[in-house]
Each structure stands twice: as C-alpha cells, then as structure tokens.
Design a protein that fits this description.
It contains 1 helix and 4 strands; from the N terminus they run ββαββ. By secondary structure, it is an alpha+beta fold.
Length: 154
C-alpha cells in the first residue's frame, strides 16, 4: 500500500536521577542538596548567603511647591513686619482721626435733632399773626381741552 517517509517511535523514559537516602528533615543545618555539572545530585556544605544590602536611598529633587513656599515665607514675613512698623508710626494720627470722626458723628446727630426743633419753634412764633391759605380752582372742558385756573389768597 502506501509507504510512509517517516517512522513512529515511542519515547523511552529517562533514567531516574539518584536521590540521597536522607529525608529533607534529616539534613543538618548548613547542608544543602546541590546538583553538580554532570547532573548528579548530592549533599554539600553551602556557604550561607548574606542577606541583600538595603537599597541606597536616592536623593529626591525638592518639589516646586516647597521651593515656592520657602521663597515666599521671608517675603510675607517682611510684609507683615513692614505693616506693623507702619501702623506703629501711624497710630497717633489714626487715634486723632478716630476722635475727629466721632466729633463729626456727634455734630451730625446734633444737627439732625436741633434743625427740626428750630423749625418747629419758628412756626409756633409766626402762628400768632395768622397763616396764609391758598385756594386754587382749575376747570377744563373736554378730555384734551385747555385748563383755566384761579388762585385765591386769604
């Protein structure tokens, strides 16, 4: 029939690696199971590995906001100090100005009370000679007619 160009074969199991006759719990401290370059596994003393050194910290750059704050701090402090010095020099003038303002407020309050009282006194003094009455009569004919009026003094 058909001849094939290939041959089917099965894999043969590899020979097992010899293992030591000791259980892992029986291996003393400092002894480890090692594999030699030839593939043979055996027990051997292995030097203890030192723990890895901690990573060396890398210097981080200073954030921009910290630089800005550090530069603004003396400026703001100097501004506050200058304002304090200015207020200390201006304090006598501010005290005098506040006293002048209180005097102006008192004058306005006195005028608000005294002017109506003086007007009332002036009306009462002139009431003895009589008061003038004005009467006005206005007439108009039609909705858009010209208005005529008379004024009577008594």
């Amino acid at each position: 029939m058909h001849e094939t160009a290939y041959e089917i074969t099965t894999l043969t199991p590899q020979q097992p690696t010899p293992t030591p006759g000791m259980l892992p719990a029986e291996i003393p401290p400092g002894v480890q199971m090692v594999t030699l370059p030839g593939g043979i596994r055996t027990l051997a003393y292995a030097p203890q590995q030192a723990p890895p050194a901690p990573p060396v910290p890398v210097a981080q750059p200073i954030p921009t906001w910290a630089k800005t704050t550090a530069l603004l701090t003396p400026t703001i402090g100097g501004g506050i100090a200058a304002a304090g010095i200015g207020l200390s020099y201006a304090a006598p003038g501010l005290i005098a100005m506040s006293e002048a303002l209180w005097a102006a407020v008192a004058l306005i309050a006195a005028a608000a009370i005294s002017v109506p009282m003086l007007l009332r006194i002036g009306r009462n003094a002139g009431a003895g000679k009589g008061s003038t009455h004005i009467t006005q009569n206005i007439t108009a004919s039609g909705m858009f007619g010209k208005a005529n009026g008379t004024i009577n003094h008594r």
